[in-house]
């Protein structure tokens, strides 16, 4: 029986009696009106939420671009459930986006200044986040701009951040795939304004500085220790280059990795993925500031991919810089360190976990014990004192076991299989999501 059905009342056998009508007390009247108001509010909120989510979804899908390059589109993700299997997602940050205005200067073209590839393993046990330097000189494939149909010829050696101007998000995805061999199913681009709004939506992100940094170029002005940043200061921290490490783009990548690791810790600790208000705030900020691929053009898809990170241990989320070296042919730029890059992406393609070598933190980044006091020395652990083995004094002690003697299966002690530690890839800079790192001021 559903809620709208009513059972017929039994007909009384005796004479009909009229009951006395009770007068409602003031308290009962208030409770009744509160109940009515609550019911109206719930219906109103539900309607507003449904409209808002529909509006966000429509706005998001309207801006989506095709990055498939003729390949089959990935299967749609489940409704508000974790994505099944592994996936690769490209995230880029653009400079001189038409929506950012003139607040951050002007350029001749929109550039893909931040380039990040996220890989989640098929069993969701580990993830790799690879950052590519914008000044990485590399081969570029032929690209067709999906908006205009214009075809751009392949190039043998140009900086990575030229890719967006040659065909938008689709061209950047194709360029990264050609470089790494990793197929990209999902992609998203955001501008400076998008970074500000997304950071505000999660309530700010804690970052750490070893010493105060004041950089007039980016606008960064933060004290030593930990500060929770949002809005313009968050963007200044991510854009800052000349105030950190050696003033290079590689030092800026280390700061961005510190920020992203802290963002993941913040979202996990604050249960953002289960907070409806924060989820909607993130979705709204994303719809207004993110250019998605068609495969990512729904709120369901974004939530589904995000949920895959929910249960991955922080120590199993590795942030890595694409391995690079220098070349006299390209002063001020970097070139691929191919052998190390091949080793890194072989692990990614085969879904094999790995760890980074000792002293692998990026340029301008330091691992600290206490982010609130980054200059404090880590406590020195005293080595345990080994006691000399005591020889048995009992002359009747059992004789040593003859290795040739047959073994009684009932007396065998089962051996515990020790899991194989992930292989270390030397020469790759980065950190894991559980490591607390702080930015060092410019040392040049």
Automatic annotation (TrEMBL):
Acidic residues composition-biased segments: 379-389
Composition skew (Polar residues), residue ranges: 432-444
InterPro entries: LytR/CpsA/Psr_CW_biosynth, LytR_CpsA_psr
Pfam families in the cross-refs: LytR_cpsA_psr
Low complexity bias spans: 390-425
Region Disordered, residue ranges: 1-23, 355-444
Keyword hit for Acetylation: no
Superkingdom of source: Bacteria
Domain Cell envelope-related transcriptional attenuator: 112-269
Transmembrane feature ranges: 30-53
Keyword terms of this UniProt record: Membrane, Transmembrane, Transmembrane helix
Family: Belongs to the LytR/CpsA/Psr (LCP) family.
PANTHER family: POLYISOPRENYL-TEICHOIC ACID--PEPTIDOGLYCAN TEICHOIC ACID TRANSFERASE TAGU
Protein name per its UniProtKB record: LCP family protein
Originating organism: Herbiconiux oxytropis
């Amino acid at each position: 029986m559903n809620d709208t059905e009513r059972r017929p009342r039994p007909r009384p056998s005796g004479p009909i009696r009229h009951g006395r009508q009770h007068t409602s007390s003031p308290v009962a009247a208030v409770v009744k009106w509160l109940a009515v108001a609550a019911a109206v509010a719930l219906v109103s909120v539900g309607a507003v939420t449904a409209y808002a989510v529909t509006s966000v979804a429509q706005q998001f899908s309207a801006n989506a671009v095709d990055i498939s390059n003729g390949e089959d589109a990935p299967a749609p993700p489940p409704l508000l459930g974790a994505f099944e299997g592994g996936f690769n997602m490209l995230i880029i940050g653009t400079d001189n986006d038409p929506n950012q205005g003139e607040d951050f200067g002007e350029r001749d073209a929109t550039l893909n200044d931040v380039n990040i590839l996220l890989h989640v393993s098929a069993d969701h046990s580990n993830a790799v986040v690879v950052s590519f330097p914008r000044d990485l000189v590399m081969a570029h494939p032929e690209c067709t701009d999906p908006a205009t149909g214009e075809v751009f010829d392949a190039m043998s050696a140009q900086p990575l951040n030229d890719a967006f101007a040659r065909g938008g998000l689709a061209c950047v995805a194709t360029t990264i795939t050609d470089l790494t061999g990793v197929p990209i199913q999902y992609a998203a681009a955001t501008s400076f304004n998008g970074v500000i709004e997304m950071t505000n939506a999660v309530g700010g992100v804690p970052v750490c500085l070893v010493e105060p940094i004041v950089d007039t170029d980016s606008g960064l002005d933060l004290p030593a220790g930990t500060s929770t940043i949002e809005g313009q200061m968050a963007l200044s921290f991510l854009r800052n280059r000349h105030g950190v490490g050696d003033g290079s783009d590689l030092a800026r990548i280390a700061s961005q990795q510190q920020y992203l690791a802290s963002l993941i810790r913040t979202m996990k600790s604050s249960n953002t993925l289960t907070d409806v208000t924060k989820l909607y705030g993130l979705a709204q900020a994303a719809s207004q500031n993110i250019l998605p691929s068609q495969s990512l053009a729904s709120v369901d898809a974004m939530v589904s991919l995000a949920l895959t990170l929910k249960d991955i241990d922080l120590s199993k989320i590795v942030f890595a810089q694409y391995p690079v070296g220098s070349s006299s042919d390209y002063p001020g730029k970097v070139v691929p360190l191919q052998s190390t890059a091949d080793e890194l992406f072989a692990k990614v393609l085969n879904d094999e976990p790995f760890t980074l070598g000792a002293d692998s933190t990026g340029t301008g980044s330091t691992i600290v014990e206490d982010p609130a006091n980054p200059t404090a020395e880590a406590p020195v652990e005293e080595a345990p004192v080994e006691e000399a083995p005591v020889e048995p004094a009992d002359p009747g002690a059992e004789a040593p076991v003859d290795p040739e003697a047959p073994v009684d299966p009932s007396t065998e002690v089962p051996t515990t299989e020790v899991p194989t530690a992930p292989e270390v890839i030397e020469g790759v800079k980065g950190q894991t999501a559980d490591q607390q790192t702080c930015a060092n001021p410019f040392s040049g």
